[in-house]
Structure formats: structure tokens, C-alpha cells
Design goal:
The complex is a heterodimer. Chain A is built from 12 helices and no strands. Chain A is mainly alpha-helical. Chain A has 2 domains: 176 residues, no CATH class; 49 residues, no CATH class. In chain A, helix 1 packs across helix 9. Chain B is mainly alpha-helical. Chain B has a domain of 42 residues. Chain B contains 4 helices and no strands. The chains are: A mainly alpha, B mainly alpha. The interface between A and B is large, with 107 and 81 residues.
Chain lengths: 234, 107
């Protein structure tokens, strides 16, 4: 099954002083408050964070419910906004594929792919043997996922006490944390260019198509950075 | 639970899981040393940067009420703190939340 020591090593990685637990927690406190404001009850709020566990997806769902969108349009909008999870999975799971590990571990634990867990795994995987990495990953994922669920509950009940300025403070925390993490990950030409060009092209394409801006910006910025990086290495 | 909210949650979670699941299926045949892996690595970082930049510049939810100038100011100051504190993640993050609340409260 799952190696306990590896699982707990992963689980404990969110206790490090520079862990994303605080930023992640604050975001989901904001989500919990938002869900309550649009009419979710506590069970629905918990259920949605457990099953979705992707912040932009939850935001799109909340907006869509507010404007009374159809289920099909919710599906397409969420699929678009969360399609970034595909390249994130493809740039993470090959690092932990091992033939001796059962497939179900991979199929279930892919649910944990989200920015925070992905960034922790990306900066720590080299310290873990390849055959054990999936257990370590399940530990990280369970920890970040639990933080998200607990914070949603907190946010739901705290929402009456949070004013607009406090919610604004909570909302900026997450992008700032991820900006710092991305800037900190800029160690190779390819990653540095990807981050800089992605940051420019994402908002740029928003002027032409808000729905496609992230995917288009990411695809074009990532591909240019890849080509420039490959050329420089060769 | 109302049916509509429940169905919306299920539809949203399915739409989210698809990308994760397809990613794992594709990963089986991709080696970590291959070119395609490096390409996808670039795509992942670029898409994340695009998402975060968009969240700051064209926000939805609570942040959309904050002025453009205040958002940019908080980002720049936080990045400054990030470098001054030798790339510590916690100081700029905590600072950003406090600064954002204060700026919008007083200005």
C-alpha cells in the first residue's frame, strides 16, 4: 500500500516555515465566505471544496450560479479555466511513474494537482527516490487538501465577521504568494522566460478573449520559451 | 441540499478532474528526460504565470473592488520585500494582505 513514513514526510512538508499552507488557507477562507454569500449551506461548501479543489474552478462555478448559467456552460467554462491542470500533470507525473506502484495511486492522487501541492512537489522531488515519490506526493496532496477543506469551513462561519477590506486582503494573498513562488522557481532560461512571457501574454490576450486568454497566453509563452531555451542549450 | 447547487458542484468537479486524469494518462508514456516533458514544463509555468497575472490585473470577486493602482503597488512592494528578505515566502504574503486591507480602508 502506501509507505507511511513517506506519506507523513510529504504531509509534514506543509509545516515548513515557507510552506503555502497559510496562503492556501486564506484563499479557501475567502472561498468559504463567498460560497456562503451566494447561498450555499455548510455541507454544500465542504462538498464543493472536497470534490473540486481548484480555486479558479470554484470561482467560475460561483459566478455562473449567480448569473443562472446552464450546467453545460458551467462545464465548458470550468473545463477551460482548469485546463492548466493538464500541462501541470504532464510536467509532474512522469517524475513519479514507477512500474511497481499500482495504477490506482496515480488515478486517485491526480485529484491533488493544484498550484500549491505542485510547487511543493516540484521543489522537493529530487530528495526522494523515484519509486517512493508517489507516496510522498499523496502525503503532500492530503495535507494541502485538508487545509483547503478546513479553511472553507472556517471561511463559511467567519464570513459574518469579515468586512470588504479584509476579504480584499485575503484575496490578494494568494496571487502574491504564487508570484513569489514562481519568481523563486526562475532558475533556468526556460522556466524564467515561461514565467515572464506568461505573465505578459496572459493579460494581453484577455483583451481579445477573456475565456481563452490563460490557455492561449500559456501555450504561446510556454512554446516560445521552450524553443529559445532549447536553442541556447544546444 | 438543493439539486441545482449539487449538480453544479458535480459538473464543476468532473470538468476539473478530466484535465488531471488525462494528464496522468499521458504521463505514462512520457519520460522525464524527453523534449516533450520539457515543453510541458514550460507550458505549465507559463500558464500559471498567465493565470496569476490575470488574477491581479483583471480580478473577479473581492479584488475587483480594489483600484488598479493599489493592486500594482501591493505587488511591487511585496516583490521588493521578497528579495530583501532573501526570498522568504511568508513576509511578502502576510504583508500583501495587511497592505491591501489598509490601503483600501484609508485611501
Amino acid at each position: 500500500m502506501i509507505k507511511k513514513e513517506l506519506f507523513f514526510k510529504g504531509f509534514k512538508s506543509i509545516l515548513k516555515p515557507d510552506s503555502p499552507a497559510i496562503a492556501l488557507g486564506c484563499c479557501f477562507i475567502a472561498i468559504g465566505a463567498l460560497l456562503k454569500n451566494i447561498g450555499f449551506n455548510i455541507q454544500e461548501s465542504i462538498f464543493s471544496t472536497m470534490l473540486i479543489y481548484a480555486l479558479p474552478g470554484s470561482l467560475v462555478m460561483a459566478e455562473s450560479i449567480l448569473v443562472g448559467a446552464s450546467l453545460l456552460s458551467i462545464f465548458i467554462a470550468v473545463w477551460f479555466v482548469n485546463a492548466r491542470l493538464y500541462p501541470m500533470a504532464v510536467s509532474l507525473f512522469p517524475l513519479m511513474m514507477d512500474e511497481k506502484q499500482p495504477k490506482w495511486k496515480y488515478y486517485l492522487s491526480c485529484h491533488f494537482i493544484a498550484v500549491s501541492a505542485w510547487l511543493i512537489m516540484k521543489s522537493n522531488y529530487e530528495t526522494i527516490e523515484k519509486k517512493d515519490r508517489v507516496d510522498f506526493w499523496i502525503g503532500i496532496g492530503s495535507a494541502t487538501w485538508s487545509v483547503a477543506v478546513v479553511s472553507t469551513i472556517l471561511g463559511f462561519y467567519l464570513s459574518d465577521y469579515l468586512n470588504k477590506d479584509m476579504l480584499m486582503g485575503l484575496a490578494i494573498l494568494n496571487p502574491i504568494y504564487f508570484t513569489c513562488m514562481l519568481v523563486g522557481a526562475m532558475k533556468t532560461i526556460q522556466v524564467s522566460l515561461s514565467v515572464i512571457l506568461g505573465g505578459i501574454l496572459g493579460p494581453f490576450f484577455y483583451f481579445f478573449s477573456p475565456e481563452w486568454s490563460i490557455l492561449l497566453g500559456g501555450l504561446i509563452a510556454g512554446s516560445i520559451s521552450y524553443l529559445i531555451g532549447e536553442k541556447n542549450v544546444n | 441540499m438543493s439539486i441545482n447547487i449539487l449538480l453544479s458542484i458535480i459538473v464543476t468537479s468532473l470538468a476539473t478532474y478530466i484535465s488531471r486524469f488525462l494528464g496522468v494518462l499521458s504521463s505514462v508514456r512520457i519520460k522525464e528526460t524527453s523534449k516533450i516533458f520539457r515543453w510541458f514544463n514550460c507550458l505549465a509555468y507559463a500558464t500559471l504565470a498567465a493565470l496569476i497575472a490575470r488574477t491581479i490585473i483583471f480580478p473577479v470577486g473581492a479584488l475587483s473592488d480594489a483600484s488598479y493602482l493599489s493592486r500594482i503597488l501591493v505587488v511591487l512592494l511585496s516583490l521588493g520585500i521578497f528579495f530583501v528578505t532573501k526570498k522568504n515566502f511568508v513576509y511578502p504574503t502576510v504583508f500583501s494582505a495587511v497592505a491591501m486591507s489598509l490601503i483600501n480602508n484609508y485611501f
